[in-house]
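quick one, 387 residues, struct below
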Amino acid sequence: MRLRLGSERWLDSPSLRGQRVGIVCNPASVDHQFVHIIDRLADHQGATLAAIFGPQHGFRSDVQENMIETGHGRDEERRVPIHSLYSDTRIPTPEMLRGLDLLVVDLQDVGTRIYTYIYTMAYCLTAAARDGVKVVVLDRPNPIGGTAVEGPMLVPGYESFVGLYPIPMRHGMTIGELARLFNEHFAIGADLEVVAMEGWQRPMYHDDAQAPWVMPSPNMPTLDSAIVYPGTVLFEGTNVSEARGTTRPFELVGAPWVAAERFAAALNRRGLAGVTFRPAVFEPTFHKHAKQTCGGCQLHVTDRQRFQPVLAAILLTEAFRDAGRDQFLWRDPPYEYEHEKRPFDILCGTAETREQIEAGVPAEAIAASWVDAVRAFEPLRRRFLIY
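---
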């Protein structure tokens, strides 16, 4: 069966007639013809587009740099306000929701706990519950599949805008399934409808599903980036470049003190399943080590089913520390509105992973320490699966 996105099914619904709709979206909110949901709704005979809401990087994804707020604005062509939910507020205000019958979320997630779009959705659910507005989440594929679950669990005290709820780093759920989990299990209590896809199966990656790919965010250019992202995003918490400012962010990692060939050879000798570390040298145009030559590697995933991105990132972190004990650093706060805890700990959802690395615990043993918590999460996860 050919994939039908939640948005494609929802726009065919007769229940839209007479509704004033606000939509949380960005450039990836397209259908199989690459037509944006805003344009589809603007042409709809029964519904009225009343407001646009943009997540991190903006409604148009025109802010590439990380942790830069976007302003509010107006879409002059459609004559509706654009409300930024990565600005002075991340929660829709009562004024933003006034007059809406529906608040619709059509965002492409990437299957990783720290991706802020899922918390923009959670805050929309919270605001809608406060103001009595129905929320409709239009489901899209998890681009890295819906079976594998991996990584540390977020623990109490480490909640932030890159992790509001105790779920693993790689959660194996769609955005619609997460909406159900957040709303019911974490007691948000909004009037929620999830419009499911047709034709998607849990083992499918984005290309298996033949889903349209538009960059979900400016530094997520390809599916290859998304596959490694649950691991290499951890380098945002260090002074190692995750290759923002290059054409291959998150696939490339490196630092000025690293000799690429020796570094990659040592990693490949570890024999990590499903991935080859190719020596690489790059020069970021912005962000960490801008205009400096960085040595490191590019991750080439050779077997998606066996590859464990978070384990790979822990192995890489150990390797960068070993390559330059005096140069490698954990970044200091602030990070994503958190001003006290280390960014690496906020990303992991716990300080334990960093402490294990500092204590010299091997990467494989660190990964083994996550297993019990991930297994305990599975029954809860299964309650909210749709497919």
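The chain has two domains: 6-214, 223-350.
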